Amino acid sequence: MAEAAVHELHVGSQQVTFSTQGGVPVKWVSCYPDCEDESAAKTEWFNERDGFMAWAVPEEPQQSARIMASEFDFAIVETDSIVEVTLSSQQLFNKQPLVFVYRLPKHGYRGEISASGISGLALTVASGESFVPEQLPGFGSIYSKVRPFVLNENGQVYLQPIEDEYSLVDINVSASIGIRNRYWLWLGAPQAASIAEYSLVGENRPIIAVRAASGASKVSLVTYSGPTELNALAEASPELPDVLFSAIWDWLRVLSFGLLYLLKWLYGLVGNYGLAIILLSLTVKILMFPLTYIADKWQAQVNATSSMLKPKLDQIKKNFKGEEAHQKVLEVYKEHDVSQFYTLPSLFGFLIQIPVFIAAFDMLAESFVLGHAGFLWIVDLAKPDSLFALPVVLPFFGGQFNLLPFVMTLLTIVCAIVQQEADLTPDLQRLQRIKLFLMATAFFLLFYTFPAGMVLYWTANNLFHLLKILPARLRQLVS
Fold this sequence. Notes:
- By secondary structure, this protein is of the alpha+beta class.
- The chain contains 10 helices and 20 strands.
- The strands form 4 sheets. The protein has a 9-stranded antiparallel sheet with strand order 6-7-8-9-18-15-14-11-12. The protein has a 5-stranded antiparallel sheet with strand order 5-10-17-16-13. It has a 4-stranded antiparallel sheet with strand order 1-2-3-4, with no helix packed on it.
């Protein structure tokens, strides 16, 4: 048998190598913004040695093996917008030629793949090891996964594959199935009702297969093989931005998109995403000032009430137990005309920050633009800041010393020391300080292995809070 011919094509944002044996791509690379740009971000979906794309007939293994071993004729047609590659075999497959067509876009990432000639044909895609991101330790590992997913009217839904065990999912004409990591995705949208199978061939190594539900002899999919960058997604299809921020409620997604637009606008002003993140934190604080001002006033009222009630409540706690103590507490509340729910307004300041916190962190976690963006000593804002390598790899923390989480925690501790609220008794001030220290510890553990862009945002937030409370503390010390 003659050695199979390979044809390497560079088409806009795609580099695809086709083999005449099996009629499939054997290597697929996508670039952003363009493969001709030496500084372009790139990902390799699979190559000749790892991962694959293949055509098969799942219910007929011998037929599948015959397809993969067959030699196909290669033809290429180029228009202003696409490069169309046709691989055809005149060998008799059910007395019909077998034809595979791949349409690669010259601009953008929306293409098409189709096949005809055998009923029950399925396109199988398995991403390679090169598509698996750098594995982050600790809680940062949630950003290192490769997962199969379905995109339908409910948005993006992650599938839960089991290794070496195939599961089925119906794909209608308004849905699609794909494989993605944090910043790149390959997606196929069947043009007729289809059945998809998915499984794992190893950790972070999903495999998907799509075939016509009716067993038709033609399969056609509109594909997207590119970055999770908002403009690229929206240009390919109005539904594709649904893959962004899919883990949060729709109203929070709106907030995330708003923050993303704001981040890009700030970047346009300063030309550096690190500075833009710091300015984003400041801008959010300014925009939220009316709400936080009200929250601070309510908190001061709660603090004043708590300080007023504390001596009597401490006496009750010391001298009474059980139901009697409860009744005494209620009598104190009644005596001072205080509701037993008087502390609820203090939650307002916390609650108004939670949606913004979630939206900002989802946005920063999934922002493609932060990949390979540097700031100060940080090489890549999409990864931990990694000031230097440690001599040993520590469980959970990994083998890199990340400076930014220490700066973030130090600022939280300084805030806890500086913040002296006059409405609180010394005991309540000490209790508040302990809570802040515990929060600083929890955030340190949570954020230590998180991407630097996310940690930078919260560090800036702590810095601006310190600058807010410091003048009042200085006035207390002077007076």
